Amino acid sequence: MGKLIAVIGNSGVGKTTLTKAIAAREGFTPACEQHGERPFQHAMARDSQRYALANQLDYLLFRAEQEYDLRNKPTIGVIDGGLDLDFYGFTHLFWQRGYLDDAEFGLCARQYHLLRTLLGPPDLYIHLAAPLSPIRSRFEQRGRPVEIAEAQDLMLLDELITAWVQQVEPQRLLTLDAGGIDFCDINTVAAVAEQISTWEGGQK
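The structure assignment produced for this chain is given below.
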């Protein structure tokens, strides 16, 4: 199976931008979130309580399908977020917000753990870490047609992601300070690519 890199971090931190930039520069195969295309995203934005379970089950399965497809490509795959972030970040967020009850969260957990066991973990997680102030600013400016998380969720989401990242094996984790970084800048992308290249060399 091919190698898989997951770019993880809070909403608005720059995951999609870096995923696309790294893929274009290095010839990796990218896979990104689908904000308006998934069948329950708009419905959940209107009624989170009613559609949270359907949305999360769909998104966890969709992310697993993306990872499976990337693993079967001849190039390295790089995914924006991924299965783990959707579970430890967003599924936990919606559970704590009361959009998912305990039984519904348990159903999502069963699906996640089975899918992760079958797929295996990504070879590398690139964790984009940044203070909440620039994250909130980027989140409010990105102008997506549908948002499931809200600006008020960013602090809790950051706490959930940080708690999960602490459990990731150190050899699978590359943490970048993304607070003042522009992932559209070619020099920044080149520097990240160099760090990935160093990691790749250690994997051979």
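Interim note for the steering committee: The chain has a mean pLDDT of 88. The CA atoms of residues 87 and 100 lie 12 Å apart.
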